[in-house]
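Tokens for DUF721 domain-containing protein. Go.
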Amino acid sequence: MYMVAKPSKMNKPGRSSAKPLSVLLSDVFSDAYAKQGFAARELVTRWTEIIGPELSAHCEPLKMQWPRPVEGQPQEPATLVLRVEGPMALEIQHASDVILQRVNRFFGWSAVGRLALRQGPLSRNERPRPSPPPDPREVEQIAQTLTSVEDDALRAALARLGASIKGN
């Protein structure tokens, strides 16, 4: 007599519980920004959108300094501390009213009352420089090997691409 075993449920993997790294690290970053006085990290992460690319190319927010609240008095606006590239400090100082307006518009209330500037290099990543154009002689040599391509514009584009790849 043979005993037939009941089919057991296989442990099938359920739905993936993978979460984006930004969600997992959200609390870590929020704590770090809070230590610098930022109520919301969006001021730092969306800085270019808030004040515009022309101004954000030369300054970045470091921290917000909130004055100690006095009991029975309304909360005074914070001081936004900006790191500014040395030669642009005067320009940023002249644009301080515009920066204050844009930051306060972002917050929806007069959160920032004044700016404090700290000169120094910005922590932004340097943009890669565009590669130089390919050597015209190389382009011509490669174009001569592409005789099977009938379209002149396509042949020229492929020759430039080939010369650029060969140059790198």
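The domain at 25-119 is CATH 3.30.300 (GMP Synthetase; Chain A, domain 3).
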